[in-house]
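Here comes a specimen:
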Amino acid sequence: MIAAVQSNMAASTPDLSGVEFATSADGLPVARIGDLVLAMVFSPSGFSYLGRAVAVRRPLAELTRADFIGHDGQIADEAEFRSRVAETAGHKRDLASLDRVRTRMSASTPWGGSQMAVIYSDGIVFHMTSGHGGLHLSADRNTKVHPLLRKDTPWYEEDCEWAIVAVTFPDLFTAYERSMAEKTVRNIWPDAWEMIHGCVLAEGESWAKDRRAFDQRHRNDFVVTSAILSGEHAGMIEVVAVVNSDRKPGNHRRRFLVPSEEYAGRGRFGFVINHARHVEYDGPSSFVGWESRGVGHDRPPHFERGESNRRSARDPAASRLFDAADCGARRKTGDDGEGLEPGAAPIGSSYLPSGARGLPHLRALGRTRHDRSQNGDE
């Protein structure tokens, strides 16, 4: 199935109509799409990423790095930058054609009182609250959801569950949203996806299925949960690892020393200890609060991530803190190796489709046709 997906992607031709390309005053590739300007920003670390500027009216050739904010995913080269620009432009065009109406209505949601609402259609309303949001379906609309994906409640939160609504009512979503929804369902609910589509997902096509296989394959192995650059052994990473099938706090924790270069190549689900190569360690620790304990070295460390970070902030020479839950995190859709894996961290939303995590609703993606007509733009 992977080959088929790649073939379909290769066959598509980006639509760059309405996009202005240029080079900024300091040499960045930039592009304007209406009131949004995107840039390929070069990091001092050697990689490039997508930055954005909103409501900047100056000529593109006058802009500089200081005009751009945000980090909407890494970009390999200028060709990928143009592809991201085309994706964003297409999403904005589709969004402008939809009859979504932004309004205010009194409603109690699972995340608090509604502060703003977007009516997608009769019986489908998105509610925003101070901290979260999601789509509400009427009883009739909820019966249209496939039984394998349908919830007992009519609320579908904005991080992942919005995708269930999008695949059920595709005409109410943009092409970009439909694409992200399909990937989200495939990555998070692979069993339901396979039964609905009548085919089996291969390795690499579903984050959740791959994670399940990893956990089964390494059920009895030690997997790293925390890591820090060793201040005692040059070129080594000091790690804390726990048996993968028994991750309760304090259970079977051990420390090991791992070569830095080897740890840098860790997989998406964590670093697996190889007892033939990685030495169990009970010497002085670079973790705050974990001193040498002799026979008691399997007890949990009495340190907090925040404490380790504070020490590093006070002492520039202190070891850099790594955390296995943060290192190498993937985007929620899991296909391009950027952003966050499902459940890794709060998701929120983004102005750009290319960096959007969760539902790219009006709070992030500009005005609907209704908004523009209200302002006299149409």
Remarks:
- The two ends are 44 Å apart (CA to CA).
- Residues 1-11, 292-357, 361-378 have pLDDT under 50 and may be disordered.
- The CA atoms of residues 65 and 261 lie 32 Å apart.
- The first strand starts at residue 20 and ends at 23.
